[in-house]
Amino acid sequence: MMFLLYDFIFFIYALIYLPCLLLTKRGYAGFTMRLGNFDQSIKDQIAVKPNIWLHAVSVGEVMVLDGFIDQLKKGYPGYQIIATVTTKTGYELACHRLKDKALIIPSPIDFSFVAAAFVNLIKPKVYIAVETEIWPNLYSQLFHHKIPIMVINGRISDNSFGRYKAIRFLLKGVLNQVSVWCMQSQRDAGKIMDLGAESSRVKVTGNIKFDDLPIISDTAAIKLSKDHLWWVAGSTHPGEDEIILDVYGKIVKDNPNWRLVIAPRHIERAVRIKELVANAGAKDVIVVDTIGQLRSLYAQASLVFVGKSLCVGGGHNVIEPAFYGKAIIVGPRCANFRDIIACFKDGNAITQVDDAQGFEKAVNELCAEPVKRERLGHAARQVIAANQGATKRSLEYLSGYLK
């Protein structure tokens, strides 16, 4: 009966979701696999070795998998890694970054018959989801086949918690089909237990994003001139680009050695941002229109703004620019990364502003004060070093399910 209920819910969801995909052009090659339609070549590749199934929704989760897979393959070389990814941008990044580490396929849409098709084909020894993914039909299929389910780097945003809480009566049984919840913080652990997960299944392991970030070599696809200082605005969202361009236009008058890079979160917005640049009459601005460049750009920056924090709520990951010892600015709306931002604020390693006016003031000060930029960057590296180890702790829990 419960399967029928979940299938009905996902049927209604699909009626809305699939037309939106077509209209926004977010479908991608191989998308029909999300309904369990596999080519024989994919079936043959999956059957080569025993499998570990990893799942990531989008870009941020794929980046977590990058280093985690490296450690997983070192510890368990006899297994093949299957990575499923949901969004178009996440799938494209995974195909680019993980192609030599894992077999990449689209994730299943959570109908019971699709979930059964994936489980029966992959036959994983363990299923590992990045961050907090709750797929009732898939989890029930895995549980029925006695396949351990593990969540790593688990977190629950305030918005997601509210939605999950509304259907808590449906979730409790599903949550306790998960063998272990490796959560980023005590707050995240508390949320998943409030939703019904048994405390014995919930562990606080920290944030994997603090671990094992590789240093970029000189082979970066976009090389920024060393004759200038570069302000990289990463993962920007609508409304933020206009503010950034306005501030840059003022800054560059007094600081002519500065240049700007805007890397939108969704690259399909690059055309619109180029129009904004032209309309603003801004010079020496690079607009990034390909994925997978942001990490190397952060490595070359002198100042970083991390988007989805000024005009759109939620925030994005600040750990990557911090790893490279950069001075970082964020806006007030970082609810999805509250605990991470708190770590950096406690270490005096980040500048968080309240509004556009505060943003302009902070950028102006940091562009003019190299000593302050250096001090923030040094403190950011110290925060990274103090918070590493989540990958190791997560793998220790995984060892109980793999030999």
Describe it for me?
There is one protein chain. This protein is α/β, with parallel strands linked by helices and 403 residues long. The protein has 2 domains: 222 residues, 3-Deoxy-D-manno-octulosonic-acid transferase, N-terminal domain (Rossmann fold), CATH 3.40.50; 158 residues, Glycogen Phosphorylase B (Rossmann fold). 47% of the residues lie in helices and 16% in strands. It has 17 helices and 13 strands. β6, α9 and β7 form a beta-alpha-beta unit. α3 runs parallel beside α4, α5 packs across α6 and α10 packs across α11. The chain is globular, with a radius of gyration of 22 Å. The two termini are 36 Å apart.
In short:
The protein contains 17 helices and 13 strands. About 45% of the residues lie in helices and about 15% in strands.
Residue-averaged pLDDT: 91
Strand order within the widest beta sheet: 3-2-1-4-5-6-7
| Dominant shape | globular
> Quick one: how many beta strands?
13
Biggest sheet architecture: 7 strands, parallel
CATH first level of the largest domain: which class? Alpha Beta
**Percentage of residues assigned to helices:** 40-55%
Looking at this structure, what is the CATH superfamily of the largest domain? 3-Deoxy-D-manno-octulosonic-acid transferase, N-terminal domain
The number of helical runs is 17
CATH topology (fold) name of the largest domain: Rossmann fold
Listing every helix as H and every strand as E from the N terminus to the C terminus, the arrangement reads: HHEHEHEHEHEHHEHEEHEHEHEHEHEHHH
Percent in strands: 15-25%
Please mark out the parts with pLDDT under 50 across 5 or more consecutive residues, or reply none: none
Protein structure class: alpha/beta
End-to-end Cα distance: 36 Å
Please tell me the CATH architecture of the largest domain by its name. 3-Layer(aba) Sandwich
| Total number of distinct structural domains | 2
Radius of gyration, taken over Cα atoms and rounded to an integer in Å: 22 Å
Oligomer: single chain
